[in-house]
């Protein structure tokens, strides 16, 4: 199955499971992930959502063998809205390649833990596209205007150390420590007051992001204008 779901001690782990394709997203997988996130948000037993990837990469972006459609973009925008607006904290654990839509998933989380060997890149500019997942609203707030524009305009990769230095990730750990460390962090959050964590997230996002839903709509419109169906 392309998505593995486990629930333990209040932590819902959603694990991308297409290692032979570096967990590249198809429309099917994106829809499955969206449905799982939405179900987790409405489940009172879920206190934390943990996103991870099976194998040597977190996510290599969109699967190039999957036909591009506006439905795929709409699904990514809905997924970003769900993760950012979820009352539960979202932890993202990344290793290997973190590319395109995979990179954008890290922006949608609250705390990202990266393996030391992780590599981050937004390659959309190289194929004449704009990013999705709220990248225009989220990336500058994490790394600053200059760094955000450089990452979007040049499509250059950065390593985990640079990602931590510029505020893109919360922590960097040795590759072999990533799964256990991310689950420990998620369980720590799950032991805190859900109401308090939800209010922290709501207030911080309210101050920093404004109308995030409107930003997603504008971003999708730019994407369609550059590459209509």
UniProtKB/TrEMBL annotation:
Superkingdom of the organism of origin: Bacteria
SUPFAM superfamilies named in the record: ClpP/crotonase (SSF52096)
GO molecular function terms attached to this record: isomerase activity
Pfam families: ECH_1 (PF00378)
Keyword vocabulary terms for this entry: Isomerase
Keyword Cell inner membrane attributed: no
EC number: 5.3.3.18
Coiled-coil region(s): none
InterPro entries to which the protein is assigned, alphabetical: ClpP/crotonase-like_dom_sf (IPR029045), Enoyl-CoA_hydra/iso (IPR001753)
PANTHER family: EG:BACN32G11.4 PROTEIN, ENOYL-COA HYDRATASE
Stated name of the protein: 2-(1,2-epoxy-1,2-dihydrophenyl)acetyl-CoA isomerase
Species whose genome carries this gene: Hydrogenophaga laconesensis
């Amino acid at each position: 199955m392309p998505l593995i779901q486990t629930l333990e001690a209040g932590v819902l782990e959603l694990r991308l499971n297409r290692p032979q394709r570096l967990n590249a997203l198809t429309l099917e997988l994106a829809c499955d992930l969206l449905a799982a996130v939405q179900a987790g948000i409405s489940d009172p037993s879920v206190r934390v959502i943990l996103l991870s990837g099976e194998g040597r990469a977190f996510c290599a972006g969109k699967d190039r063998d999957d036909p591009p459609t506006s439905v795929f973009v709409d699904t990514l925008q809905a997924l970003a809205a769900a993760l950012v607006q979820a009352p539960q904290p979202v932890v993202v654990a990344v290793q290997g390649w973190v590319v395109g839509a995979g990179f954008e998933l890290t922006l949608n989380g609250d705390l990202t833990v990266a393996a030391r060997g992780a590599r981050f890149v937004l390659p959309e500019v190289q194929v004449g596209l704009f990013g999705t997942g709220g990248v225009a609203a989220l990336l500058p707030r994490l790394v600053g205007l200059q760094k955000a524009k450089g990452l979007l305009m040049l499509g250059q990769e950065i390593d985990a150390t640079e990602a931590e230095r510029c505020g893109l990730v919360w922590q960097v750990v040795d590759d072999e420590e990533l799964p256990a460390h991310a689950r420990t962090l998620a369980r720590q959050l799950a032991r805190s007051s859900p109401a308090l964590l939800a209010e922290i997230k709501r207030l911080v996002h309210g101050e920093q992001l404004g109308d995030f839903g409107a930003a997603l709509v504008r971003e999708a419109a730019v994407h369609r204008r550059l590459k209509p169906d």
